[in-house]
Each structure stands twice: as C-alpha cells, then as structure tokens.
Design goal:
By secondary structure, this protein is α/β, with parallel strands linked by helices. It is built from eight helices and 15 strands. It has helices spanning about 15-30, 50-60, 70-80, 95-100, 120-125, 165-185, 220-230, 295-305; strands at about 10-15, 30-40, 65, 85-90, 105-110, 115-120, 130-140, 150-155, 200-205, 235-240, 245-255, 265, 270-275, 280-290, 290. Strands 3-2-1-4-5-7-8 form a seven-stranded mixed sheet. Strands 10, 11, 12, 13, 14 and 15 form a six-stranded antiparallel sheet that branches. Strands 6-9 form a two-stranded parallel ribbon. Helix 1 runs parallel beside helix 6 (about 165-185) and helix 5 packs antiparallel against helix 7. It is elongated, with a radius of gyration of 23 Å.
Length: about 300
C-alpha cells in the first residue's frame, strides 16, 4: 500500500457501463482512485451506455483522455499517481508493458475466459449460439486476455436474448465479480488460476458490415446474427433494390417455407425472412435508415424487384 495514503490507490482505465459500475465498486470498497483514463465518445457511434466522465465529475475524480496508451505523457501521469493497482474496465486499448510494470494490473473481460477472448465478447457469444457467458477479472499481461484468472461470474444467454440483453447481465456480473473479490485482492490474498489458452478462442473487432445477412444460411444462424447485432448495435441488414433494410426486431417463426427462395417475403400480410433450410424469421420491425418499413411497403418493393409472394 502506498505511503501517501491509508487507502490503496488505483489508476483506472474505464469506459462504458462496465467502467461506470466497476468504478463505483472501487469507491464503495474504499479505494483511492487517483486518476481515471477514459475515451471521448465517438460522434459516429450510438452511445447508449453510461458515461465514465460524468461519474468522475460527480465524484471529483481526475479524468483524462490520451490519444494512445503508449503516449509518454500518460506513462508520466500514471507514474506520478504512484498507484498500488491498475484496473482496466472496458477501456478500448491494450495497455503497453511500460504501464503494466508500474503496479499489479487487472482487467475485467466480458466473457468466461478463456472463452471468447478479444474484442466484442458478448456479441461473439450470442452469434455463436452460446447458452452462457459472464465476466472475468484477470491479471493483465502484454498478451490480450491471457493473464491468470482471479474471479468470474456466469450468466445465462436465453434463446431470444439479444446482445443488448446479455450485456446488461454481464455488467451486473462484472460488478458482482469485482465486489466479491475486492477485499482479498486489496489484501493480496485473492486466488489465481491458470487461463488455459488451449481452450476457447480469440475473436477480433466487429464492424457494421459484419451484420450483412446471408439468407442462404439456416434460420438459427441468421437469427443468432440478428440477436448479436440488434439495436442499439448497428443491426443485421439486407439489401433490396439498392435499399439497405435493417432488422430491428425479429424471432424464429414456427413452420417452414419449403419451395420459396431465401430472402425477405410477405406471407399472409406479415414480413418474414426465408432461410436456406426452409426455416423462417418473423420480422416484427424492419427499417430503411430511420424509416419504418411495413408489410405493404415491403410488398411494393418486392413487386418492383419481381419477388413478391403473398399466399392467402
């Protein structure tokens, strides 16, 4: 523990809801948060989550944004803070070795490591049809999500959960994980277990382009894509007559559409997505940009494209 304070001192790298909730846990646990390093919000991004900057203002905590974690000014600022611990809670950059050498460093990752290492772990878990995920506090190393596991908490992924639903659960799991282990962590008695990198896998960042639907795939795969990127994420999308259509809300639909080609259709006055295995998605909301597209509008678009089909 630092000589400058009776309380353990930390520098925290944080963003997003997990950043907000885990910062609150540190404060409730008596940690002296000397500095928070965060991000500016991207004006091109749909910011639907809590603000670390606002939390720091509310609690009188110094917060800063640096263009890159290798910035020498950042290294100097962290060194000057004389931390006993470094924490990373959904900060979007890897911390370089120079920073990690300053104090024991811990990261909160949104999966049950070693599963779904890397970027966007919640979205990847939903996309792959996983039935559980969680939050893992682990030691930070120069290699991403490779350090020893300190604690983790599991949450279920229900069959119709979207990534947004799951992220809310993971945020609570992150809070619970840190709250449960923090006293032992500060006392130096927290357990460690190996992070077996032979298990699980590493996944990269996702872009809006990754949400393009291949209707030739089976219905469960297409539905998992929708769930993984449904709003407030950019959404699974398809194109008809040069217009990009985004699935806002959809579910698997009972029955089959054998004989119909894959793609969007209007069946008995309802919008469906026909998949390569004959399975279907019932599409409850569809958008073209900011405009809602109903069954009549889609029928007209399909007719113009020569693909309308509306059996009674």
């Amino acid at each position: 523990m630092s000589a400058h304070s009776a309380a353990p001192r930390a520098v925290v790298f944080a963003y997003h809801d997990v950043g907000v909730r885990c910062l609150l846990v540190l404060l409730a646990g008596g940690v002296d948060v000397a500095l928070v390093v965060t991000h500016d919000d991207d004006p091109a991004e749909n910011v639907w989550y809590g603000s670390v900057k606002a939390l720091c203002r509310e609690h009188g905590i110094a917060a800063a944004v640096y263009p890159h974690p290798a910035d020498p000014a950042l290294l100097a600022a962290v060194r000057a803070a004389q931390p006993d611990f470094l924490f990373s809670f959904y900060y979007r950059h890897m911390l370089p070795a120079g920073l990690l050498a300053l104090a024991p460093a811990y990261n909160m990752h949104g999966s049950l490591l070693p599963a779904f290492r890397g970027r966007a772990p919640v979205n990847w878990a939903v996309l792959h049809g996983a039935d559980r995920t969680g939050a893992t506090l682990h030691e930070m190393t120069a290699r991403p999500d490779a350090g020893a596991i300190v604690a983790q908490t599991a949450v279920p992924i229900l069959p119709d959960d979207t990534a947004y639903d799951v992220f809310a659960k993971v945020t609570v799991a992150a809070e619970q994980t840190l709250w449960g282990v923090l006293p032992a962590l500060l006392a130096g008695t927290a357990p460690r277990r190996a992070n077996d990198l032979r298990q699980g896998g590493y996944f990269g960042a996702r872009t809006p382009a990754d949400g393009r639907i291949d209707w030739g795939r089976d219905a469960q795969t297409v539905y998992n894509l929708h769930r993984a990127v449904a709003p407030p994420y950019p959404g699974a999308h398809t194109e008809l007559g040069g217009v990009v259509l985004t699935l806002v809300r959809a579910r698997l639909r009972p029955g089959r559409a054998d004989g119909l080609p894959p793609g969007l259709r209007v069946l008995q006055g309802a919008i469906v997505g026909v998949c390569g295995d004959g399975g279907m998605l019932a599409i409850e909301r569809l958008r073209a940009g900011a405009v809602e597209v109903g069954a009549d509008a889609l029928h007209a678009m399909l007719a113009a494209a020569g693909a309308a089909h509306d059996p009674t």
